[in-house]
């Protein structure tokens, strides 16, 4: 936050906000924001969380406030780099009044509407803040605004420009523009199963519609095989999407993984040159140093041993090729689709003795992966949701909370663990349950001889693959980019 003060409607201070302490330009009418961008007071916390200044508040001040409100740059006579300065009254009011967020401009200016010229930080400076940050500020002040003695907030050094990251974002924006232009289904009632031939090839894949709904995520303590990370159970609402009928096969993945081979295949087919140009701008996996099938089969077999980053970049590449928005499923989407309206340990019930009809696992796999689609599908027409391969999701694997959620996603903040679901050909029946979770680990690439380790391959995880989803709603390009680029892939 870049400021935390203002007497609403005071023109002189409004000009200070617009220039953050510099000479203001002629005031112009603020751009009218969309309704969804309005910043409203966050709902009260369900439980009494003790806010830690260093962990919770200091990062907010350093990232969003100090550019304009520090020693030597105290716009509006407001300074937030030290405890004494933050608690000192200013001409614009009291920035922080311990115990009273309603009279603390650090909080009150953060909850103004997005089009209010007193909003802090201003819209052009990244405002409004997220509801989570606003709630932390409110709780911190309510709890007495504890600020440890000697702690001084300091401006974060600007990160150096990353040309590769900038290019990746440009590519995402171009893909998003094409996706929006080609939207052909805009209502859940229009959603049907469909198949697509990947342009420039003879390879196709099928997508199954998954209706919106609500389910209980996780498993009860009494379920056979239950593990602590599967609880507490909680209610989750899910928006409609399509999911891959099958796991992504080598036939599909190698078009992305081996670009030179894909170009040879492409030459024999009529394609969209502009779409090809955008797809070719996406980073591709490095040349593997071993046969990545590990002798278990290629044609009709699921692709294995890619990192979560590799799977996400395939989704980005496929989106560029097809003009449809694809990504990995969230953990919640995956479990919801796996259960398909059921509440039992497996989508067919609780009797693990029937698992052989629906899944490949330790007792029937013969110690190797198998071709897709040979077992019975779940009630929504999805194959191999139990067994065959653990399947990548978008989420960092963290403990659940009991709070009800809508379309949750735990965005990764570190390379490990990412959550996988479903169990594999190596596992015992209890690991194939709908609620079972398995977090990725650095040991999955021990045999990789490269230094640093490849961001594309988990050579020791011959039990992991993925399937794709296509949300009905296409979010803004920056949101799409966040799904495709976790930001932690260099350590993946």
Characterise the protein shown here.
The chain has 492 residues and is α+β, with helices and mostly antiparallel strands. It folds into two domains: 11-142, no CATH class; 163-491, paralog of FGE (formylglycine-generating enzyme) (Alpha-Beta Complex). Helices cover 24% and strands 10% of the residues. The protein is built from twelve helices and 13 strands. It has helices at residues 11-19, 53-64, 83-87, 105-108, 131-142, 163-181, 250-257, 259-266, 273-280, 308-322, 331-339, 477-484; strands spanning 69-70, 73-74, 194-197, 204-210, 213-217, 234-238, 241-244, 390-396, 405-406, 418-421, 437-439, 464-465, 469-471. It has a four-stranded antiparallel sheet with strand order 3-4-7-13, with no helix packed on it. Strand 1 and strand 2 form a beta hairpin. It is globular, with a radius of gyration of 26 Å. The protein starts with 10 loop residues before the first helix and ends in an 8-residue tail after the last helix.
- Uncertain spans, ≥5 residues at pLDDT below 50? 1-46
- Which class of the largest domain in CATH terms? Alpha Beta
Order of strands, main sheet, comes to 3-4-7-13
- Report the radius of gyration as a whole number of Å: 26 Å
Spatial separation of the terminal alpha carbons = 31 Å
Share of β-strand residues: 5-15%
Strand segment tally: 13
Query: What is the global morphology?
Result: globular
């Amino acid at each position: 936050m870049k400021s935390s003060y203002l007497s609403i409607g005071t023109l002189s201070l409004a000009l200070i906000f617009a220039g953050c302490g510099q000479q203001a330009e002629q005031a112009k009418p603020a751009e009218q924001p969309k309704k969804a961008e309005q910043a409203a007071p966050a709902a009260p916390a369900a439980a009494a969380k003790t806010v830690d200044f260093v962990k919770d508040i200091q990062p907010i001040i350093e990232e969003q406030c100090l550019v304009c409100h520090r020693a030597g740059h105290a716009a509006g006579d407001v300074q937030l780099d030290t405890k004494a300065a933050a608690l000192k009254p200013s001409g614009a009011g009291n920035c922080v009044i311990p115990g009273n967020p309603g009279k603390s401009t650090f909080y009150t200016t953060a909850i103004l509407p997005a089009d209010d010229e007193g909003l802090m930080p201003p819209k052009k400076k990244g405002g409004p803040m997220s509801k989570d940050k606003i709630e932390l500020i409110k709780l911190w002040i309510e709890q007495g605004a504890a600020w440890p003695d000697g702690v001084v907030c300091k401006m974060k050094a600007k990160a150096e420009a990353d040309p590769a990251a900038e290019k990746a974002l440009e590519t995402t924006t171009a893909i998003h523009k094409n996706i929006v232009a080609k939207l052909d289904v805009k209502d859940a009632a229009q959603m049907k199963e469909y198949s697509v031939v990947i342009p420039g090839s003879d390879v196709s894949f099928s997508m199954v519609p998954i209706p919106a709904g609500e389910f209980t995520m996780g498993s009860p303590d009494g379920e056979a095989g239950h593990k602590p990370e599967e609880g507490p159970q909680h209610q989750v609402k899910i928006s409609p999407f399509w999911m891959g009928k099958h796991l992504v096969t080598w036939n599909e993945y190698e078009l992305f993984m081996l670009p030179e081979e894909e170009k040879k295949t492409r030459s024999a087919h009529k394609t969209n040159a502009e779409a090809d140009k955008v797809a070719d701008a996406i980073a591709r996996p490095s040349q593997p140093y071993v046969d990545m099938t590990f002798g278990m089969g290629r044609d009709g077999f699921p692709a294995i041993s890619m990192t979560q980053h590799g799977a996400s970049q395939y989704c980005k590449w496929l989106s560029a090729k097809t003009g449809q928005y694809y990504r990995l499923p969230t953990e919640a989407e995956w479990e919801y689709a796996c259960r398909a309206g059921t509440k039992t340990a497996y989508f067919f019930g609780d009797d693990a003795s029937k698992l052989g009809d629906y899944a490949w696992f330790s007792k029937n796999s013969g110690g190797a992966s198998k071709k897709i689609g040979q077992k019975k599908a779940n009630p929504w027409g999805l194959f191999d949701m139990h067994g065959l391969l653990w399947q990548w999701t978008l989420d960092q694997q963290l403990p659940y909370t009991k709070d009800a959620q809508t379309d949750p996603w735990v965005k990764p903040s570190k390379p490990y663990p990412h959550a996988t679901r479903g169990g594999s050909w190596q596992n015992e029946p209890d690991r194939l349950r709908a609620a079972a979770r398995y977090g990725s680990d650095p040991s999955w690439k021990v045999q990789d001889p490269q230094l640093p380790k490849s961001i594309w391959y988990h050579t020791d995880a011959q039990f992991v693959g993925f399937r794709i989803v296509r949300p009905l709603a296409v979010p803004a390009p920056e949101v799409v980019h966040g799904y495709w680029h976790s930001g932690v892939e260099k350590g993946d």
